[in-house]
Write a structure and sequence with these properties.
With about 220 residues, the protein is mainly α. The chain has helices at about 5-15, 20-40, 70-80, 100-125, 135-155, 165-175, 195-205; strands at about 55-60, 85-90, 95-100. It folds into 2 domains: about 5-45, no CATH class; about 55-205, no CATH class. It contains 7 helices and 3 strands; from the N terminus they run ααβαββαααα.
């Protein structure tokens, strides 16, 4: 076997570090070292290549429909915790655009769709006689974010929910392709404290599956 072929095999084995189970990764690294030793190749000199997914974007939702509060809050949550940027776009800013890798956008989309349904279900079943829908939704948003922050603090970055090391690339992509963006406050203008408190309880009681990463475990919430 020629050296070029050996090096390509080693590269493929080293790329296993970017995915797979712990056992698969350890086995791949062992085989790479064994192959390198057999052919007198310095493993540290092998460039495994940049196999990262490119940054892209995807629009979610109907740009002709009204952007409700639960849609906005769901978009902000996935931006904060699921490795994408989310912006409102389209006519009258009625659609959400996710920016990130294809895999991360797939996961963000799954969470986003789930959260919208979850917000609406909680309002329908847990509000009691409350009337302030937006305050309830805001309370849920705060409760979910609090729970997610707690999970990250307890687990640490390696096992937590945030696995982002490409924020600057995503930010550059956003600035290059989307102009005249403005920050909007997510806090309701007229806060109803009872509705917010009830919403916070619903949000905090949302169960989050721990140990999320961008290659596996897409059933994130229940």
């Amino acid at each position: 076997m020629q050296n070029n072929e050996v090096i390509e095999k080693i590269k493929k084995l080293l790329r296993m570090k970017n995915g797979g189970t712990q056992g698969e990764i350890e086995n791949a690294l062992y085989l790479a070292k064994k192959l390198a030793d057999k052919h007198n190749i310095d493993l540290n000199s092998v460039d495994e290549g940049d196999q990262r997914e490119p940054i892209t974007h995807r629009q979610s939702g109907d740009p002709k429909s009204r952007l409700q509060s639960e849609v906005k809050y769901s978009a902000v949550i996935v931006q904060q915790f699921f490795n994408v940027k989310s912006i409102s776009s389209g006519f009258r800013k009625q659609a959400i655009v996710f920016i990130g890798t294809r895999t991360d956008i797939d996961i963000a989309q799954y969470v986003f769709d789930f959260l919208i349904t979850h917000f609406r279900h909680e309002w329908k079943t847990k509000r009691g006689r409350l009337r302030s829908r937006q305050s309830f939704m805001y309370g849920m948003y705060v409760g979910i974010c609090y729970k997610l922050n707690q999970a990250n603090h307890l687990l640490g970055e390696k096992e937590g929910l945030i696995l982002s090391n490409r924020n600057s690339e995503i930010e550059d992509y956003k600035n290059e392709r989307f102009n005249n963006l403005k920050n909007e406050s997510v806090v309701p203008k007229n806060e109803a404290k009872t509705a917010m408190s009830r919403g916070f309880a619903s949000g905090f009681n949302t169960n989050i599956r721990q140990g999320l990463n961008s290659e596996q475990n897409r059933k994130l919430l229940n």
